[in-house]
Design brief:
Number of helices: 16
Number of strands: 24
Radius of gyration: 22 Å
Strand content: 15-25%
Structural class: alpha+beta
Amino acid sequence: MHAPHAVPHFPHRLAPFDLRTTPLLRTDVLVIGAGVAGAAAALHAADAGAEVLLLSKSDLTDTNTAWAQGGIAVVTLAEDSIEAHIADTLRVGAGVAAPDVVRQVVGAAEAAVAWLQRLGTRFDRGGDDGTYDVSREGGHSHARVVHANGDATGQEIQRALAATLQAHPRITVLPHVFVRDLVLQDGRCVGALCVQDGHELAVETGATVVATGGTGQIYRETTNPTGASGDGHALCFRAGARMTECEFVQFHPTTLYIAGASRFLISEVVRGAGAVLRDRTGERFMAAAHPMAELAPRDVVSRAILDRMVATNDTHVYLDLSTVSGDPRERFPSIARICATFDLDLAKDPIPVRPGAHYFVGGAATDLDGRTSVAGLFAVGEAAASGLHGANRLASNSLLEGAVIGRRAGLAAAAECGTPAPGLPRIGDGPPIAAAPPRLLHDDLLYSLKSLMWRQVGLRRDADGLADARARIAFWHHYLARAPLRDPRVCQLANMLTVAALVTGAALTRRESRGTHFRSDFPNRDDDGFCRGILLERAGDGGIRATLGPVRAPTDRVPA
């Protein structure tokens, strides 16, 4: 039975503001987020002469980028080619990736890796010739993943980026700032309303770049850090930006699963090195599920694991590293350290794993320079849908996308910030606060949302489950909106409900199965009806308007 308020309605702003009593900062370019995409945008905008203000919800070292284990995809081997990397990206994108975007991003990979190295990133080298040590991951036809410290690539990249950001004379970094709303004037994004140490702060800017990372925390099982709550997706949507591909949520197949323990990603590099998946009886099952076995695309491996869990009535499967050459504790030191805290020895103990929400493919629809449909507003990285990934992300293409399109967005924002802007309005309205606000059990609502998304909007979906989920999300948002939305913790929960509604609405609209999106009631791919994007926009009444984008050629069948 569906709850009342079965259709969600979202305000254009979480709370009102009054600049007569709010401190105001001015900058040329505002960047929200400090991962590889946001850092690239900030650094290139500043190098182009713009004054940049970078806001981070937490420390500069606590980003989605810092959690990335595998690496960054770039062609280095003689037997590999840019054309092969393009073809792999289009094939995994399941027909809806944009070939021009794929070609531009993949073609810029070598320059992006060289830039990160100049900033101080220490990538692993192999042999006496000093060439990059590369690994192969799922969906790739060749070994082309450059990594650092074995399985801690993101940490090393983030270390170099943070140091460079803090040293740049035209970049001001403010950590621990929560961006509550974007502000528009005459249809243009002109700034943001923020909360810092419990106090409101306004920022006026010529151009805004949203680079807030992922949304994995809307799911009960996730590899994402606690800050990955989809704030940037919700900011862009409330500002009127067109969203797309929000139904495509990539689940990583192998998340360490021990009841009561924090989830931890077991990198795909482990399977690339020869590790295999087995069920509780010891049977290896991926060879029968896909020709690429453990190196099949992530959605295939994730669903195969889920099927095996159901078939064996178990909560997980096992990753067996006994087939990896050499000592796995030396090859994967970060994973070995984490597993050792649970008395698991990689050299002899299989690792209990299950899928977890990992990467949000969709976001604000952008061009190659990160421009959204709202003037003055850019989005990059996981907050954006650039067209690179289509219906599924090829492993280790995300750090690449962040560096390449982050650079382009930073340069475009720096060029645009000279355009005369109308400035921030003095007073802005927001949803009224109820005379008797509901008592909110924050943690209970948060857990209910995460559990609902995992059960009904996860690896397997159907119309009844999605419709019920949409109704429940709408009801929860209805009473949450009646509470004072000034506390960042409550605002973050509102953002999570918004993103959950976007995922659910898009999944209901896409009546087929493609890439990471699987509908058990429509299990087949339908190129005639759905070889296109699902566009989501905020309607005038605050609802979500879903429309089908233009028909595309099925790009995974186009020769590279």
